[in-house]
Write a structure and sequence with these properties.
It contains nine helices and no strands. By secondary structure, it is mostly helical. Pfam families: DUF2062.
Length: 217
């Protein structure tokens, strides 16, 4: 390609940008929310889509949050783009709290079957980060290993004591987080769309719903 960038990001650079964006988390979050407000769908469609993405962030299926978000958005008839943006609720700043909360709540619901002596949460988190690094490296390298290679019985034996309670906890906390986001996001999108339409009417770029005579009175 004529205008293709010659700069190829390295794996450490990609991971560093994911952990701490170059513009900082505050500017990054402001950019994300502006994208949400400016989506062309109805306030309900945007808000329920974002809620679906937030729900996906509470599942322990790292690397598949987009897939979970899209499926959830399809079920509730939400915006797919809003669902993708909603997965940003899960990020390096929030994941430690999400994982801790989902694991403990899921463990409590399951009757405390995953005892502290059976699961070393710190060790498991280390395994998760190593797995993320491998998946990212496999995408940006010529390695033949695909993103699903290595998922075998041994892998499940290591991660299942962690995944099971986190999945149960995520099914509880995910909808709660989604519901908590739905109403303020819907109101914010509605307010933005109303103000935008009023500006367009004032500039005579769209017709007034009251008619030309009433609009000028």
């Amino acid at each position: 390609m004529l205008f293709k960038s010659k700069y190829k990001p390295t794996i450490p650079h990609i991971m560093r940008e994911w952990v701490w964006p170059k513009a900082g988390w505050l500017r990054w979050s402001q950019y994300v929310w502006r994208r949400v407000w400016r989506l062309a769908d109805s306030p309900h469609t945007v808000a329920i889509g974002l809620a679906a993405g937030a729900f996906a962030s509470f599942t322990p299926f790292m690397g598949f949050h987009f897939v979970v978000a899209f499926v959830a958005a399809w079920v509730v008839r939400g915006s797919m783009l809003a669902a993708a943006i909603g997965t940003s609720i899960g990020n390096p700043l929030t994941f430690p709290f999400i994982w801790y909360a989902t694991f403990n709540i899921g463990n409590w619901i399951l009757g405390g079957k995953a005892k502290s002596g059976d699961v070393d949460l710190t060790e498991m988190v280390g395994h998760v980060w190593n797995e993320i690094y491998f998946r990212v490296a496999s995408v940006f390298s010529a390695a033949p290993d695909g993103p699903l290679d290595g998922v075998n019985n041994a892998w499940l034996e290591v991660f299942w004591p962690l995944i099971k309670p986190m999945t149960v906890g995520g099914l509880v906390l995910g909808p709660i987080c989604g519901a908590a986001l739905y109403f303020p996001v819907r109101a914010a999108v509605q307010s933005y769309q109303t103000r935008r339409r009023e500006r367009l009417i004032a500039r005579h770029l769209v017709p007034s719903p009251r008619g030309p005579d009433q609009a000028t009175s």
